[in-house]
Write a structure and sequence with these properties.
Blueprint (H helix, E strand, L loop, with lengths): L1 E6 L3 H15 L3 E5 L10 H5 L4 E5 L7 E5 L4 E4 L14 E6 L2 E7 L7 H24 L4 E6 L23 H12 L3 E2 H5 L25 E5 L1 H5 L1 E6 L15 E5 L1
Parallel strand pairs: 1-2, 7-8
Antiparallel strand pairs: 1-12, 2-4, 3-4, 5-6, 6-7, 8-10, 9-10, 11-12
Length: 256
């Protein structure tokens, strides 16, 4: 199975980018983040022409996640279990396909809204860990994938790209990411590339792309059985160099 995750930073602006990438790479499942459109306006029809069914959880102008799959699937959750009732941020979708639980997520950045915004990020990560723990306890093959807005280690941010107080690198954010790994999940990219730069994001500002001043914030985490079968895991850097790109690139993972 081939699964990918991609923060497209507006599906309206990047629909053709996604269509071209699907034709070239042909993943079985693609998880999208930051679609920035309401659920009912997601352009599912265009993807259907390539054989991909689509489900989206959107909101106007902000956030939003979606699943594109050429395998039959069932949506099991349209919000992260455990969040307070009434949380309106469209950041999570979970599906079941071929016996695998696949969660696509857009984790809060944590830099806006002051300490309240950062507290929300941490609470969201706590709920995610609790959901992962339940899936693993049920011995479900599990994938958590998306824009985590966390650089797990110092080498996951180019020197000088972020301040030490940025929410993406604060100790509390990194500790909660480690909690996911301690549950038994495997960081797919680091399983095959244990060290070195493997950036997935380059800001539009300050020449970040030409200087390769990137961040690794898009991740795919696998349950033990899937991790044992892992054969490929890497960001597709070429997408960042295309005209009018997203500031993120896809991360593709494959197991046999």
């Amino acid at each position: 199975m081939k699964i990918a995750t991609w923060n497209v930073n507006s599906i309206r602006q990047r629909e053709q980018h996604v269509l071209r990438w699907l034709e070239r790479v042909e993943p079985d499942v693609l998880l999208l983040q930051e679609i920035k459109c309401e659920t009912e306006t997601f352009p599912a029809l265009g993807f259907r022409g390539l054989g991909y069914a689509a489900e989206a959880v959107g909101q106007k102008s902000y956030n939003g996640v979606a699943v594109l799959s050429r395998l039959p699937f069932t949506v099991t959750h349209r919000a992260l279990p455990g969040l307070p009732a009434g949380d309106a941020q469209a950041r999570y979708i979970e599906v079941d396909t071929d016996g695998v639980a696949i969660a696509g997520l857009y984790l809060p950045n944590g830099n806006s809204g002051g300490e309240a915004g950062f507290t929300y990020k941490l609470a969201w990560m706590d709920c995610l860990a609790e959901r992962a723990e339940r899936l693993l306890a049920a011995e479900r093959p599990t994938v958590l994938a998306g824009d985590f807005n966390v650089c797990p280690e110092p080498e996951d941010a180019a020197p000088g790209a972020l301040s030490a107080t940025d929410a993406l690198v604060r100790p509390e954010s990194r500790a909660r990411f480690r909690r996911l790994l301690w549950l038994g999940l495997t960081d797919a990219v680091r399983a095959l590339q244990p060290s070195g730069a493997a950036y997935t994001f380059w800001d539009y500002q300050a020449g970040a792309w030409p200087r390769d001043a990137g961040l690794r914030i898009d991740h795919v985490l696998l349950s033990p059985g899937l991790a044992e079968r892992l054969v490929r895991a890497a960001p597709d850097r070429a997408e960042r160099d295309r005209p009018q790109p997203s500031d993120h690139v896809p991360v593709l993972v494959e197991w046999d």
